[in-house]
Amino acid sequence: MTKILYVEDEPALGKIVKESLQSRNYQVAMAEDGLAGLRLFSQEKVDICVLDIMLPKMDGYTLAAEIRKTAPHMPIIFLTAKSQVEDVVKGFQTGGNDYLKKPFSLEELIVRIENLLALTKGQKSENKQEIVFGSYVFNPAKFELRNGKGDIKRLSYKEAGILMLLLENANQTIERKEILLKLWGDDSFFNSRNLDVYITKLRDYLKSDPQVQIITIKGIGYYFSF
Q1: Three-state SS across the chain?
Q2: What is the reported pLDDT for 127?
Q3: Does pTM surpass 0.85?
């Protein structure tokens, strides 16, 4: 049974979400502030974290960063009323894998939980051997990218997921919509902007080898070649 760490400081909302998730056969370990959430994470064996951002004692960003220190591959979903692009980017930079704006439906939360768990499981069960392309070596299990000089770049969860999809579809066009649905669960404009940011980052990481190219096919997607 999937166990969720749920950290929410609004008691009424927390009670509703917790009971609703339990009614769908999820186990829920719940805390009402960031420090309590961190203690609970150290005590419980959880499969995924659902964290509010505006938490007392320790905010969700800091909590996610602390969780990442001991569990670098733990799936994390942020729940927040914040909707500015900079808030979303900060969320991903501090370790979040997905971002759900309040108010949200339970069905949408469950879909995002299941999508993220499936992606995590898929990345663990897929080929864990190092993948060589151009002058780079990618280790999907460790989320590490090594260049020809031996320098290692630690990729975020989303960066590694996008790179894996590009590699799986090398020398052919992959649609933006496919990437968005597989990694974000929907192809909204908001998530599309986030994808643009990650593609820009990957291009920067891969710029030392001119043979490795992420080519934008306008209105369709990307063509990855090496």
Answers
A1: CCEEEEECCCHHHHHHHHHHHHHCCCEEEEECCHHHHHHHHHHCCCCEEEEECCCCCCCHHHHHHHHHHHCCCCCEEEEECCCCHHHHHHHHHCCCCEEEECCCCHHHHHHHHHHHHHHHHHHHHCCCCCEEECCEEEECCCCEEECCCCCEEECCHHHHHHHHHHHHCCCCEEEHHHHHHHHCCCCCHHHHHHHHHHHHHHHHHCCCCCCCEEEEECCCEEEEEC
A2: 45
A3: no
